Amino acid sequence: MSRPSSPARPSRLNTGFPMKQTVLLIAPSLGFESIFPLGLSTIASALMADGKVCIGLDERARPGCLETALAGVDPDSRPMAAVIEASPRNVNQALDAAARCAAADIPAIFVGPAAATDARAMMDSSCAFAAVTGDPETVLLRLLDELANPVGAEIPGARFRIAGGVLTDSPPVFDMDPAGLVYDRTVFPVSDYCDHPRHPEFRQAAIETSRGCTLDCTFCPVPCRYERKWRGRPIAAIVQEMSGLHRDYGITDFVIEDDQPLADIERFQTLMKAIRTALPGISMAFSNGLRPEMLNISTLQLMAAAGTRDISLGIESGSSKVRASLNRPISTDQVQGIITEAHRLKMVVTGYFMLGLPGETVPQMLETIMMANRFRFDYVHFMVYHPWHVTTGPASLAFNHVRTAAYLGSYCNPMRLAGLARSGHISPGRARADASRLIEWIMAGRTGGGTW
Fold it and tell me: Which of the residues 127, 136, 354, 440 has an alpha carbon 20 to 30 A from that of 244?
């Protein structure tokens, strides 16, 4: 099957349409991650259905594209707005994008987890027009109407500026039917995101089968973002989308990006059966940290039969006390049983852990490291816990450094130290010293001390 090539990108904003109907969709830079922007793709579909023209600018996949696009703006014919996706990991990059758009006299609207969970801070730290706290596919249409014809009436799910610089906001109402979600793959071309970093034989695409989560993990912003609501897309729509990606773009590997795909386990099992029937031979990965206690042998078997090659498990801590404080009631026997069965089914298993949680002691951190070493994970990721916030006024560059260091540091693997020591490449003393420095670094970052 031939692979579609990436379309040529204009260096200037020349759409052939009136720019007052054009909206920029911006994905700011985010370290090493550049997966397909699912959230912006559904926004693109909603806006284009309303007659808008959307231009996708992904700084992760095409660094410098925002600067190039803004340099091409005609002062007499500007886009009507710029929609900027902000996560807790790139708040400052999102604020910088908003400032650049403001300098070009383009109103900025924040969407994404950072906007939804702390709209006040995002607005107080920028000159943006609005931050969306509800379903962006519906809220944005009303915000764009407000920009075109200012009224000043409250819009549920939005915090925005009205005449005189006054801010108005109204609580979100999550009443959008997920059956209406359409994931556009043209504004952000599939070919920019389909190469797998470790498996060149795969042609990959990200999809989501649901939104939200009903659980209450104390460290996670997702329940707050969606008010602990979970909404599943129709199974037929999911399978149709996957089949279309396979047929039209040669996609053979699907990354399931749901926050909580297991919320309705019977529906999930039905979905796996439907995928197996409609798409034999494809592969799948669940990379967002499945809850081990929500899995069982029969579910794993259905996942394997549908093509699942890779699962990630959200363990978070090796300490039962810390797990209890996180509302993660997972027993070590459950974890071990899931790993054993997954390996029997030829799945690769990754363990997700966090270090530096509030109140966590050094011995408890060592419990986590020992658990990761003792259990037979194929990979382990150690996330360094850090609360996120935006300061009132301009966001702190120092805090941005902390956030970046914390996230990039999360993919260090203390288990490599043990492996190097066992193989004789480094001395056991050096391994212990490096592990001690890692913990000191985590503690310093958590308390605000050290070199962060």
Answer: 136
Residue 74 sits at the vertex; the CA angle it makes with 70 and 76, to the nearest 5 degrees, is: 135
pLDDT at 378: 86
Residues 116 and 43 in one domain: yes
Side-chain half-sphere CA neighbours of 256 within 13 A: 30
DSSP string over 380-423: EEEEEP------SSSPPHHHHHHHHHHHHHTT--HHHHHHHHHH
User: In this structure, are residues 56 and 188 in contact, taking their beta carbons and an 8 Å threshold?
Assistant: yes
Q: Which residues pair with 130 in a beta bridge?
A: 109, 160
CB atoms within 10 A of CB 75: 7
Kindly report, residue by residue over 69-113, the tens digit of the pLDDT: 999 888 888 999 999 999 877 888 999 999 999 999 999 999 998
Distance in angstroms (rounded) separating the CA atoms of residues 363 and 365:
5
Write out pLDDT tens, residues 170-196: 999 898 999 999 999 999 999 899 987
315-350 pLDDT, tens digit each: 999 999 999 988 888 889 999 999 999 999 999 999
Strands 53-58 and 22-27: parallel
161 has which bridge partners? 167
Beta strands in 8-60 (DSSP E): 22-27, 53-58
Q: Global pTM?
A: 0.84
Q: Which CATH number is 111's domain given?
A: 3.40.50.2300
Domain of residue 207: give its range.
Answer: 198-447
Domain contains 111: yes
The burial of 120, by beta-carbon neighbours within 10 Å (0-12 exposed, 13-18 middle, 19 or more buried), is given as middle
| Total tally of structural domains belonging to the chain | 2
Interatomic CA distance for residues 158 and 306, integer angstroms: 40
Quote the CA–CA distance of 349 and 345 in Å, as a whole number: 11
Same domain, 30 and 151: yes
C-alpha–C-alpha distance, residues 242 and 239, integer Å: 5
CA distance 74 to 303: 52
- Please give the pLDDT value at position 434: 65
For 402: left if phi > 0, alpha if psi spans -120 to 50, otherwise beta; the answer is alpha
Beta pairing, strands 210-212 & 230-232: antiparallel
- Write out pLDDT tens, residues 267-288: 999 999 999 999 999 999 999 8
Instruction: Assess if residue 316 is contained within a domain.
Output: yes
Question: What is the rounded distance in angstroms from the CA atom of residue 425 to the CA atom of residue 445?
Answer: 29
